[in-house]
């Protein structure tokens, strides 16, 4: 039974605190396999990394799918940023080190990134069919890899506890390209603050040894995939603009240089 008001609500679920646990209760419009799919990814990540909330139960409550997992005490790095913007680079560096550590693990048995992105691109609204075909063709020629990728990695999904960082929200995890995973993070930061996005990209590439061009080459693909999600109108326009730049590769490098 659910008691009290949710401590957080999103497009797909409400989140409740119950003693030492968190209960994530999914909305009824989602497929009946949604909770099981997310739990599988989180358990894979938990087994590989350790610093992931432990799943205690998956089932139903009041007719809705739910996941019960361990509560993690502390603020997210995103909340730390909001209270003290002057430490943005320090917080981003903490998160980048965690992201690179996640991506260092080859993984099997979870959704393949190329399949996930292809599905999202096919579901995205506002993309001309020719552009959609070009995006899928471009992705088919990109190096994919088989690394564990969080899929929605940003400061609000990292809690720094007394002992270590804990990584939240594994619903978008997939096996694939670290560069694509970093590009997804870059786009999320870009919708928040361009300077934060560039600091993130600088730090990620510096610490991982990955070339910026290898990350930015994923931009139109990841932007198109994000158009399948519920995003604010201002972000949707920015994403469409990025998708429309598919045939203008020089623009990405210009933007990277501009904010160096």
The CATH superfamily of the largest domain bears the name Aminoglycoside phosphotransferase (APH), C-terminal lobe
Corresponding CATH architecture of the largest domain = Alpha-Beta Complex
Q: What average pLDDT do the residues reach?
A: 92
Structural class: alpha+beta
* CATH-assigned fold name of the largest domain: Aminoglycoside 3'-phosphotransferase, Chain: A, domain 2
* The first-level CATH class name of the largest domain: Alpha Beta
- The secondary-structure element order is EEEHEEHHHHEEEEHHHHHH
Explain what the structure shows.
This protein is of the alpha+beta class. Helices cover about 50% and strands about 15% of the residues. The chain has 11 helices and 9 strands. The protein is globular and about 50 Å long.
Question: How do the strands and helices of this protein lay out in sequence?
Answer:
Layout: E1 8-9, E2 13-18, E3 21-26, H1 34-49, E4 55-61, E5 64-70, H2 77-83, H3 88-103, H4 113-123, H5 129-140, E6 147-149, E7 158-160, E8 165-167, E9 174-176, H6 178-192, H7 194-208, H8 212-216, H9 219-226, H10 233-244, H11 249-258
Antiparallel strand pairs: 1-2, 2-3, 3-5, 4-5, 6-9, 7-8
């Amino acid at each position: 039974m659910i008691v009290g008001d949710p401590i957080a609500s999103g497009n797909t679920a409400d989140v409740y605190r119950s003693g030492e646990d968190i209960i994530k209760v999914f909305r009824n419009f989602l497929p009946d396999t949604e909770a099981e799919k997310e739990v599988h990814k989180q358990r894979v990540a938990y087994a590989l990394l350790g610093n992931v909330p432990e799943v205690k139960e998956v089932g139903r409550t009041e007719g809705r799918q739910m996941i019960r997992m361990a509560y993690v005490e502390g603020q997210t790095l995103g909340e730390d940023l909001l209270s003290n913007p002057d430490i943005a680079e320090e917080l981003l560096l903490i998160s980048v080190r965690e992201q690179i550590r996640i991506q260092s693990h080859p993984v099997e048995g979870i959704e393949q990134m190329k399949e996930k992105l292809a599905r999202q691109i096919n579901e995205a609204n506002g993309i001309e069919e020719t552009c959609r075909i070009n995006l899928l063709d471009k992705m088919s020629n990109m190096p994919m890899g088989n690394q564990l990728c969080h899929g929605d990695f940003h400061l609000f999904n990292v809690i720094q506890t007394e002992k270590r960082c804990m990584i939240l929200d594994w619903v978008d995890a997939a096996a694939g390209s670290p560069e694509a995973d970093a590009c997804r993070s870059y786009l999320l930061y870009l919708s928040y603050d361009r300077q934060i996005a560039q600091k993130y990209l600088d730090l990620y590439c510096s610490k991982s040894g990955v070339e910026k061009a290898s990350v930015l080459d994923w931009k139109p693909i990841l932007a198109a995939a994000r158009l399948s999600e519920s995003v604010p109108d201002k972000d949707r326009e920015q994403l469409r603009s990025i998708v429309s730049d598919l045939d203008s590769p020089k623009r990405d490098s210009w933007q990277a240089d501009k904010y160096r």
